[in-house]
Amino acid sequence: MKTASVLLLLSVGIVAAVQSSSAQNLAVGDCRPGLASYSTISAAVAAATPNSTVFICPGTYPEQVTIATPLTLAGLKSENGTYPVITVPSGGISASSGSAAQVVVDGTASFSEFGPVVIRNLVVDGTGSGFDCSTGYLFAGVNYLSASGHLTGVEVRNQSPGGCGVGVYLEGPPETNGSVSVQNSNIHDFDNMGIYGSSPGFTSFLVNINSSFIVSDSATVQGGIRYALTDGEAKNNNIVVVSGQVGLWLENYFGHVNARYNTIDGGQVGILSSVSRGNVIISNTLSNNGTGIQVGGFSGNDQIGWNTISLSTTAAIDLGCAPSTVAQANTVYGAPVGVANVASGDKVMENAFYGVLTSTTACQ
Q1: Contact 196, 223 (CB under 8 A)
Q2: What is the 3-state secondary structure (H, E, C) of the chain?
Q3: Tens digits of per-residue pLDDT, 153-199?
Q4: Within this chain, do residues 220 and 287 fall inside the same structural domain, yes or no?
Q5: How far apart are CA 22 and CA 144, in angstroms?
Q6: 102 and 64 Cβ atoms separated by less than 8 Å
Q7: Which of 27, 86, 226, 259 holds its CA 20 to 30 A away from the CA of 62?
Q8: Whether residue 306 sits in one domain with residue 209
Q9: Is the same domain home to 289 and 211?
Q10: 250 belongs to a structural domain
Q11: Does any domain span residue 232?
């Protein structure tokens, strides 16, 4: 038995060594002498072996990039502090798998064996896409399709072709668990959704969004961040959706989202928990929204506490007659109603109201 165990460990070590040795460092452009160099990102990605790193030299790259192997795309900063920019190619963006994206991470062929794809320090600019929203597709800057990974220090901008523009579109796999994180990124000037996480709902797909800016003033914006049948965390984000519908939209149904320390401004609804069970909405700052926090009638068991809500035009918090919801220790400045549509099983306690016409209203 000992011999068999030793042989097994040796074989695992040999496989790991082979996998590690197959990884490469490649370059796009000529700023990294000594590395294999390519003129386009697509060419470097096609040549990369699993777990390689593709360094992208400063410059502008008009292309649509498809990644079908686990690797890292790493932008390099120029002397004036700018990062590489991926723009729309002259032939436009082709559509497939429900979206048309400038950067597609496609793990549909082998998700169970598909490691994470990391994208960092890049700019994705959708200016002048000319994309036709009547096709029914979403136009995205970055699309993770049945793939896991991380976006860090990424700027995604100007996905605004006419109502179907999404900054970052994260789609979970149908049969396998997965996760994608977005952190320290800037998603702005979209006209549909800033970050959209979706899943078929049969598996666990975690979307964690931290310390990022999501900003747009388009009247067609549906949500700054939207969780659709996905779980995870939204923390320390700054969301501004002037004239838009929802700042942070939670319709995660099978699980819950932790929404903490976000600053949300300007939406018809700051945080909407529409179809969910047990979301934790704590210590957020919401201002200039129609309703600060709204719970849908199909939700329940949400915890809403220690939020600061200012200048709501309809209600600071609307519990929507949802069962077993807790609204505790929130501070409200200026609203027609502090906490609206309170059901008999809800708990409303220790809230502070200033400049509020009606503290609470009962569910009818």
Answers
A1: yes
A2: CHHHHHHHHHHHHHHHHHHHHHCCEEEECCCCCCCEEECCHHHHHHHCCCCEEEEECCCEEECCEEECCCEEEEECCCCCCCCCEEECCCCCCCCECCEEEEEEEECCCCHHHCCCEEEECCEEECCCCCCCHHHCCEEEEEEEECCCEEEECCEEECCCCCCCEEEEEEECCCCCCEEEEEECCEEECCCCEEEEEECCCCCCEEEEEECCEEEECCCCCCEEEEEECCEEEEECCEEEECCCCEEEEEECCCCCEEEECCEEECCCEEEEECCCECCEEECCEEECCCEEEEECCCCECCEEECCEEECCCCEEEECCCCCCCEEECCEEEEEEEEEEEECCCCEEECCEEEEEEEEEEECC
A3: 999 999 999 999 999 999 988 777 889 999 999 999 999 999 999 98
A4: no
A5: 24
A6: yes
A7: 226
A8: no
A9: no
A10: no
A11: no
324 within domain boundaries: yes
Same domain for 160 and 41?
A: yes
What is d(CA 229, CA 178) in angstroms, rounded to the nearest whole number?
A: 13
Q: pLDDT tens digit string along 29-70?
A: 999 999 999 999 999 999 999 999 999 999 999 999 999 999
Tokens coding 256: 């819950």
Task: Report the domain count for the chain.
Answer: 2
For residues 172 and 92, give the distance between their C-alpha atoms in angstroms, rounded to a whole number.
Answer: 26
Average pLDDT over residues 232-238: 97
| Domain range for 318 | 281-364
